[in-house]
Amino acid sequence: MLFNSLQGKGAVVRRFALGFVASFAFASAVSAEPFQEVTVGVPVPSLAEAEAWYTKFLGPDTEVLRPVPGIVEFKVAPGVWFQVFEVDDTQPSGAIVRFMVEDMAASQTARTALKIDTGEAVEIPEVVTYSEFADPFGNALGLYQMP
């Protein structure tokens, strides 16, 4: 289930804002020892279906690695890899992976043309515009645009 369907928009806004504040505080706390890269992995029941869907979602020019059987990684930003890995029994993790875009409307329109529903855009004036949705396997995803 998506976060928006679980709670009211006020709670969503507070959680989203708190997540950003926490991430900035965490980044400051560990800045003395920065990481070189980050890989975020999500489980999928079918690696072939997931690779096809994420290639469509992320775009055909996205760099793809297949480091070992059962894992596909997509380079989504400098130093950031999005990994899908095949498992027999996927369980919702409760986590959400959000992708920052330059233009929310254009990003949503482009994905709608590919028959990918990215949810309703919610604007918090002068803070963020975001949407939440799921991949075909139930993993929570989001798009967001900063002002």
Automatic annotation (TrEMBL):
<protein>
    <recommendedName>
        <fullName>VOC domain-containing protein</fullName>
    </recommendedName>
</protein>
<dbReference type="InterPro" id="IPR029068">
    <property type="entry name" value="Glyas_Bleomycin-R_OHBP_Dase"/>
</dbReference>
<feature type="signal peptide">
    <location>
        <begin position="1"/>
        <end position="32"/>
    </location>
</feature>
<keyword id="KW-0732">Signal</keyword>
